[in-house]
Design goal:
Layout (H helix, E strand, L loop, with lengths): L17 H21 L9 E17 L6 E16 L5 E15 L7 E14 L2 E14 L4 E13 L2 E14 L1
Antiparallel strand pairs: 1-2, 2-3, 3-4, 4-5, 5-6, 6-7
């Protein structure tokens, strides 16, 4: 996995690794869904806020081990909280946090199974002429053979007047013992 620096003139891409990409996509979808179904009209003269908390959510999906390329089944169990605020002018601030356990089981039973923990956070602030988005993700897994997988992802971009002023995504993957 390569480390990427600032990219002028275009938005950062979601993480390429399956495990990080999944967390990134889930956070974005839950945030968008929460905005679409949970946000009242912004026509009032007061700020509107809301929070959704959930516990013991479970997702399973097939992916690849980012260190070996071997096919795996990933099961994630997590808790989270998502909040939003809308000001009377239509500015929006959304934030969410999830944390939970990760289990990575290879299709080949002779390979190690990985278990561990993850935590992620995202936020977005938007107004009539600016937008800022942030995502962080940390995954720590230990294999049944004593090996480990550690992944850290940070994505950030800021637009003002339609111009990208800050944009980067950094991924760090460590594999080994």
């Amino acid at each position: 996995m390569k480390l990427q620096g600032t990219r002028h003139g275009r938005l950062p891409e979601p993480p390429r690794s399956g495990l990080a990409r999944w967390i990134f996509v889930v956070a974005a979808l839950v945030a968008a869904l929460g905005l679409l179904v949970g946000m009242p009209s912004v026509a009032s003269a007061e700020a509107v806020t809301g929070t959704t908390t959930f516990h013991d959510a479970t997702q399973s999906f097939q992916d690849i081990n980012p260190c070996t390329g071997d096919p795996v089944t990933v099961t994630v169990n997590y808790d989270g909280v998502f909040s939003y605020a809308v000001d009377p002018q239509g500015g929006v601030h959304v934030t969410g946090t999830t944390a939970g356990t990760f289990e990575v089981v290879p299709f080949d039973p002779s390979l190690p199974t990985y278990t561990g923990h993850f935590a992620s956070w995202f936020g977005e602030s938007s107004s009539a002429n600016s937008d800022g988005d942030w995502v962080t993700l940390n995954i720590k897994l230990r294999g049944s053979d004593g090996s480990m997988i550690s992944m850290n992802v940070v994505v950030q971009f800021h637009l003002s007047g339609g111009v990208l002023h800050v944009g980067f995504d950094k991924e760090r993957l460590r594999c080994g013992s």
